[in-house]
Amino acid sequence: MIQYLIQVVAFQLLFLLAYDLFLKKETFFNWNRVYLICSSFISFVIPFIKIESIQNAVPQEYIILLPEIVLTPGKAVEVIAPSWNWYLIIGITVSSILFMYKIVQLIQLKLKGIITHRGSYKIIEIPNSTLAFSIFNYVFIGNDINEEKLQDVLSHELVHIREKHSIDLLYFELLRILCWFNPLVYIYQKRISELHEYIADAAVVKNKNKSDYYEKLLAEVFQTQHFSFTNQFFKHSLIKKRIIMLTKQKSRQILKLKYLILVPVLILSLIHISEPTR
Q1: Whole-structure pTM over 0.90, yes or no?
Q2: What's the DSSP call for residue 127?
């Protein structure tokens, strides 16, 4: 079990390094979204794949044999390995409790608000607040948000709803619960959250003036309430990155060839795990 988890972490590290080095700065946002989701999932599958031709490539006579060790029965000492399963279960339990706490906070916030039905989505107006975020078909909007900015905020959040970004975030939230010990899962969720904002911004500015839009992002400082599985409009740590991407020239189509980096990464991974134990 421990060996399997180590392999998963190693493959995720490899995929994330490839993403940060070759793909992160490109404007192929939807392609990057697919890459992050698929690579995080594939990391759990690769350790189960064994290529028989590679396993048989090393002749048996070259396998190193360790010298035989004989233990005297009277002096044998039984070593009890620590039960990692208990550590995993305890960690998963604590992570699940924290997740449920976030859900309760979200429900309490919903109960405070005024719900307005708008066709396929619902707006929850939060009194005395400048919050702005969405989850599934709910848009939480603070009634203190300036009317001039309200339409841009709403348009942005509707892109998240239309593109079903909440499913991505909940997928990584589930991974955070099951793999609470793996810091790379948190990095994955951060990367996908950034991409969601870039995708929404790109969709909104198609019919707007870019400079006007990002000037509004810098116009005021808004309060935030962190829910890792929601798409937040006014997230201070992302504002600068969003403006950089808004002003960035679109990547040339030929640069999509960078995604072929995934091929050698997969091949090397499969070769590594298919090597026989020596």
Answers
A1: no
A2: T
